[in-house]
Amino acid sequence: MEYGNSAETAAAGALPAQRTPSAERAGRTRASSTTVALQEGARQIRESVSSVISGKDEQVHLAVVVLLAGGHLLVEDVPGVGKTVLAKTLAAAMDSSVSRIQFTPDLLPSDVTGVAIYDQVERRFEFQQGPVFANVVIGDEINRASPKTQSALLECMEEGQVTVDGVTHKLPAPFTVFATQNPSEMEGTYALPEAQRDRFMARMSMGYPERDDELAMVDRRDSSDPLASVRASLSATDVSNMIEQASRIYVAPAIKQYIVDLARATREYADVRVGVSPRATLHLVRASRAAAAVAGRDFVVPDDVAKLVGPVFAHRLVLSARGSRGTAASASAARIIDQISQQIAVPTSAATA
User: Fold this and answer.
1) Would 223 be classed as within a structural domain?
2) What is the CB-side half-sphere exposure of residue 279 using CA atoms within 13 A?
């Protein structure tokens, strides 16, 4: 399944805020100079990542979409398939501050957010920033830490700030968390709290590489580490501007209704105990805007939503005992999202113009 497509684009005027596409370009793609720049920036990031990770174009595309939507990404799979390498390569493709947190059972919340330390010379408390104070935070094996430590990221991910001893500290912008986790069935893991899962815009799996891609990986590793050759193509300011520009991509009323109908259907599905939250609805809107920008459009089409609804919604579902019977919960949730997507009417091109 592909998460997005490139389209031929032609330069036009600057992107105004929330304008309706004219009838002149209904049913076809015409990009403004802003969307051309967004598409080019996304291409540079994808190329940097693809130089290290082969055969994972769909996963790389989704990671870039989440980044430009200002969201956080959860990558779940078995050890050794490239989860951390993907996160590190994405971070290396941007000239921004990067930190890595290795989550372990003995990690404390203050090890993540920071702590106030008493300065005996100055006779006052000084706040020592934790590793969460970075543009890109790589949370490795996040579900090996206790739920208490995992919850230290809640305020960070939702509000872009940290509160310690009643004092609020703003995090740098842009701020994004790329977290990896092993399947919950594996030894030594804790289930992510529902509130934590809900703050991740999307979840995806890497999967094993194809034979040729695995052989290419072996060849690249013969001489040197390919990650060392990745050069930053965008600054933190560039990424912040791209996120702001992507947030102005036009979403037609029919598309918004389509997204809301998908969200409401998860709450009414028989095998789902808890459907997706309103936050998930907003996340799908933001991700669809970013996907349109990456494709070189300044408006969202139903296909943008259809390709993202699974990664954005599935990890948030809490299934009933019947819904998860006989298979992994993640597979059951993905199946339910597919069924819901087939039941909800897709807006016509005329309605989205």
Assistant:
1) yes
2) 16
pTM, 2 dp: 0.84
Tell me the per-residue pLDDT of 144-182, one tens digit each, with 9 for 90 and over: 988 888 888 999 999 999 998 888 999 999 999 999 988
Q: How far apart are the first and last CA of the chain?
A: 25
- Whether 131 maps to a domain, the answer reads yes
Helix (H, G, I), strand (E, B) or coil at 274: strand
Residues 192 and 115 in one domain: yes
Structural domain count, the chain: 2
Handedness of CA 94, 99, 102, 107 (dihedral sign): negative
Same domain, 285 and 218: no
The residues with which 34 forms a beta bridge, in sequence order, are none
User: Exposed e or buried b for every residue in 190-210, given b needs 16+ CB within 10 A?
Assistant: bebeeebbbbbbbbbbbeebe
The Cα-based distances of 137 to 72, 177, 229, 265 in angstroms read: 10, 5, 21, 33
Helix (H) or strand (E) segment spanning residue 264: helix 253-268
